[in-house]
């Protein structure tokens, strides 16, 4: 037995996959052979869904059929909507989402079918329903009326509409779509690993996704995008960001939105993509100071710590300008990542080996109950 121990499984290969790979040396995120950034600039999130599920980019006919399939699964169990209203106002929306994903599982007649075909159909159902749990979960908790999905809008347009209650401008829809692609898949982050570990017991795809939601909530992972926006709002103006960061760093605080286990001290290409999107958005919304503030923050972190921003750093202000409430930033990340996680669960089910690692035991040995003071 190998006794090599890597804290945090750093650099450990956990799976073989044909889904994605972070080629850090060449600053490329490989998605089924394509460069994720090139895809984000040339195709839509719906194409990514097709690519992830089928392994190839869809033709225009296949894209239309995929969109039809997704929209035909928009029906949402009314009982689950009623259940969402039971959460208190202070509920964390990732907890609401985790519960919603578990609840809709029971309405899926194919829940226990692990075949590729059934997993494909369940992935489509999840993609149709997760954005609704995100948007209407928020509405339930903030005591606002539910919104029905609109089939006349694109998949992405409808998601943004259900969150904000307003039909998005074309430009807003495009930026949101790019952000969904940026978040769609990223090799083996903690949440995807959690989903694969769960799926490796032959547990169902809904359970694997619910586990991924729990993982993604943490601030070292998906929760960082909300923390970034709270920090930017706390800063307020561009003159204040450097003193705030210097103060946090002097207290050895972690700055959310910087650093990454795999990229380490290299650029996250998705952050560059979202920075460009933010540059477009600030012009449209006349909010140039927000971009300038972010750029100063980026320069300070590079100078002081040699750290680069990750996707969350620039996705956060983008979501803010799109009118998305902060507490929905991480649920939106999960909704976008649903396709990546589904692809990994399908792959795990098709080529499974139960995850069951060992430990490096550091505790005592040779204790006996009769020697304990508990037993008189
Ligand atoms: N702010 C300040 N210092 C940092 C940061 C940061 N954001 N990230 C890493 N460091 C420092 C650490 O303090 C440590 O310094 P030291 O060696 O002087 O003690 C060094 O860099 C290495 O840090 P580790 O925690 O060992 O690196 P790890 O690979 O485990 O960290 C992580 C990766 C968790 C993402 C980290 O960079 C972090 O906490 N970032 C902030 C949270 C964040 O933005 N998460 C989003 C990740 S991307 C995503 O989910 C889309």
Plain-language structure description:
The protein has helices at residues 36-42, 45-54, 60-72, 78-84, 93-105, 116-141, 155-164, 170-184, 190-199, 205-216, 224-235, 238-250, 269-285, 288-305, 311-321, 329-350, and strands at residues 20-23, 28-31, 34-35. The chain has 16 helices and three strands. The protein is globular. Strands 1-2-3 form a three-stranded antiparallel beta sheet. By secondary structure, it is an all-alpha fold. Helix 8 crosses helix 16 and helix 9 packs antiparallel against helix 10. The structure holds acetyl coenzyme *A. Acetyl coenzyme *A (ACO) is lined by residues 220-222, 224, 254-261, 305, 307, 310-312. The active site is at 260, 312. Belongs to the citrate synthase family. It catalyses: oxaloacetate + acetyl-CoA + H2O = citrate + CoA + H(+). It comes from Paenibacillus azoreducens. One of its GO terms (molecular function) is citrate synthase activity.
Question: Class by helix and strand content?
Answer: mainly alpha
Approximate strand percentage: under 5%
Rough shape? globular
Bound molecules: acetyl coenzyme *A
Number of distinct beta strands: 3
Helix content: 55-70%
Write out the strand line-up for the largest beta sheet, numbering strands in chain order.
1-2-3
Most strands sheet: 3 strands, antiparallel
User: End-to-end span in angstroms?
Assistant: 41 Å
Q: Would you list the SSEs in sequence order as H and E?
A: EEEHHHHHHHHHHHHHHHH
Fold topology:
Elements (H helix, E strand, L loop, with lengths): L19 E4 L4 E4 L2 E2 H7 L2 H10 L5 H13 L5 H7 L8 H13 L10 H26 L13 H10 L5 H15 L5 H10 L5 H12 L7 H12 L2 H13 L18 H17 L2 H18 L5 H11 L7 H22 L26
Antiparallel strand pairs: 1-2, 2-3
Helix pairs in contact: 1-8, 2-16, 3-6, 5-6, 5-10, 6-7, 6-16, 8-13, 8-15, 8-16, 9-10, 9-16, 10-16, 11-15, 12-14, 13-14, 13-15
The structure holds acetyl coenzyme *A.
InterPro entries: Citrate_synth-like_lrg_a-sub, Citrate_synth-like_sm_a-sub, Citrate_synthase, Citrate_synthase_AS, Citrate_synthase_bac-typ, Citrate_synthase_sf
GO molecular function: citrate synthase activity
GO cellular component, one term: cytosol
């Amino acid at each position: 037995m190998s006794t090599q121990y890597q804290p945090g499984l750093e650099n450990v290969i956990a799976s073989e996959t044909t889904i994605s790979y972070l080629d850090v040396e060449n600053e490329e995120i490989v998605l089924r052979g394509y460069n994720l950034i090139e895809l984000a600039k040339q195709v839509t999130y719906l194409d990514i869904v097709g690519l992830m599920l089928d392994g190839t980019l869809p033709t225009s006919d296949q894209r239309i059929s995929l969109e039809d399939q997704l929209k035909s699964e928009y029906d949402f169990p009314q009982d689950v909507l009623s259940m969402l209203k039971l959460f208190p106002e202070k509920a964390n929306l990732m907890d609401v989402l985790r519960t919603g994903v578990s609840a809709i599982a029971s309405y899926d007649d194919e829940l226990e079918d692990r075949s590729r075909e059934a997993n494909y159909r369940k992935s489509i159902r999840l993609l149709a329903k997760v954005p609704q749990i995100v948007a209407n979960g928020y509405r339930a908790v903030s005591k606002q009326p539910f919104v029905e999905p609109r089939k006349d809008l694109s998949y992405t347009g409808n998601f943004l509409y259900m969150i904000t209650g307003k039909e998005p401008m074309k430009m807003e829809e495009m930026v949101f779509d790019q952000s969904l692609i940026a978040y769609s898949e990223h090799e083996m982050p903690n949440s995807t690993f959690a989903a694969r570990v769960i799926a490796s017991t032959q547990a169902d795809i809904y359970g694997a996704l619910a586990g991924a939601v729990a993982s993604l909530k943490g601030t070292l992972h998906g929760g960082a995008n909300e923390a970034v926006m709270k920090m930017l709002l706390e800063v307020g103006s561009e003159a204040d960001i450097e003193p705030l960061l210097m103060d946090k760093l002097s207290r050895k605080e972690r700055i959310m939105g910087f650093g990454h286990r795999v990229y380490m001290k290299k650029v996250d290409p998705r952050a560059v993509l979202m920075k460009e999107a933010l540059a477009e958005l600030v012009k449209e919304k006349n909010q140039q100071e927000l971009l300038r503030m972010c750029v100063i923050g980026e320069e300070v972190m590079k100078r002081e710590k040699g750290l680069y921003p990750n996707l969350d750093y620039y996705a956060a202000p983008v979501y803010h300008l799109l009118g998305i409430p902060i507490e929905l930033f991480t649920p939106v990340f999960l909704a976008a990542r649903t396709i990546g996680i589904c692809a990994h669960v399908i792959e795990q089910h098709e080529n499974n080996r139960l995850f069951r690692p060992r430990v490096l035991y550091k505790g005592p040995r040779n204790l006996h109950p009769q020697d304990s003071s508990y037993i008189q």
